[in-house]
Design goal:
about 40% strand; mainly beta; 4 helices; about 200 residues; 10 strands
Length: about 200
């Protein structure tokens, strides 16, 4: 049986929606080559004739989240490079600092390899003193494998505003994950942030 934390991190489902038949990038590229509207759709997905990035065939991951960052207007981004060993542990033990009332957003840099990634979503649950105070789900989209022309993807999430006031200040803990239409989890991590009166 799934825990309450696991239940919180389940992506919403649309009634009647079924994931389409899986195709390789080559199959998509050859699909109805004379259909102009289909060619525009393939171009919108980024399916092109640019050479694919070379990948390690032993690395079976389809989506690799390379970095996460906190973006605040007028301040330098706080970036966590997930290629560095121990970086996920740092996310939990070294909180992001966010000034009350500040507008901020998270962003992720990632790459896709091997096959088309369908319906990537970001799920997040925020708790304070063990009580859930927020749950977010944001569709990122579908992506073909990265190419030499487009070596990475960047997703900036919706802007948020930190709560204000003495009661809102303090330590928050979050659990987040990146999941696709096949319910495959590409990255799950715990992190934390502190809402403070001033920037530290």
């Amino acid at each position: 049986m799934a825990s309450a934390a696991e239940d919180d991190l389940v992506a919403s489902k649309t009634d009647g929606f079924k994931v389409g038949e899986k195709k390789t990038v080559e199959e998509y590229a050859k699909l109805d080559q004379n259909d102009e509207s289909l060619n525009r759709w393939k171009a919108s997905l980024g399916i092109s004739n640019s050479p694919l990035l070379a990948v390690d065939p032993s690395d079976k991951r389809r989506c690799i989240i390379q970095s996460l960052a906190l973006e605040v207007e007028g301040r330098s981004d706080t970036v966590i490079d997930l290629k560095v060993p121990g970086s996920l542990e740092t996310l939990k033990t070294k909180p992001f600092i966010i000034k009350e009332g500040a507008k901020f957003r998270m962003k992720a840099n990632f790459k896709v390899q091997h096959d088309v990634l369908s319906g990537l979503k970001y799920l997040q649950v925020v708790k304070r003193k063990g009580i859930r105070v927020g749950k977010d789900e944001e569709m990122i989209g579908s992506f073909p494998p990265n190419t030499e022309e487009k070596p990475t993807y960047e997703k900036k999430f919706s802007e948020d505003e930190a709560p204000s006031g003495m009661m809102a200040r303090g330590h928050y803990e979050a659990v987040s994950k990146f999941v696709d239409d096949d319910d495959h989890t590409h990255l799950k991590f715990e992190w934390s942030f502190d809402i403070t009166k001033d920037w530290k």
